[in-house]
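Below is a typical protein record.
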Amino acid sequence: MDEKENVTMDEKAGIDTEQELSEEPQAPEAAEEPEEAEETIEQQYAALNDRYLRLMAEYENYRKRSTKERTEIYPQATAAAVEKFLPVLDNIERAAAFERQTEEFAKGFDMICQGFGQVLKNLGVEVIGEAGEVFNPDLHNAVMKIEDPELGENVISMVLQKGYKIGDRVIRYAMVQTAN
């Protein structure tokens, strides 16, 4: 009974045991010649290595670009924020120029101006455009010109609106009057 069960199971599995035993194992199909296989492997290696090197170069460029963008974004954001506050500072300075009613009020106004100036200084903002400086078209915007023999040529005689810069970046050009 055991033999019948085994045969039956073999038959169910579709195995012909006699045929398997009589067949000799066959050699795998003829492989490529060793030289051709070696060339194929070398080509695959070269292609993968090239791909790897390109990927590494691309990553290095990405890293440098990201670092550069991060270092540039802070001054840009600071300059954009400061630019929005400059009209307020101008109005405070204009108000401070008028005669004040009491000494305490004048002192408070001066403290506000000094505090605002200190905040700008801490952010790295510099004031540009002072009377007596030489006119520089990269920093100043000349809107008027006068003839004054006491001042030299292309000298700022009056500042109509202060200019500001952070490092080499001009936030607002100084509006000035030049002489001669």
User: Anything to note?
Assistant: Residues 144 and 177 are 5 Å apart (CA to CA). The chain is about 55% helix and 20% strand. Helices lie at 2-13, 17-22, 34-97, 103-122. The domain at 51-179 is CATH 2.30.22.10 (Nucleotide Exchange Factor Grpe; Chain A, domain 2).
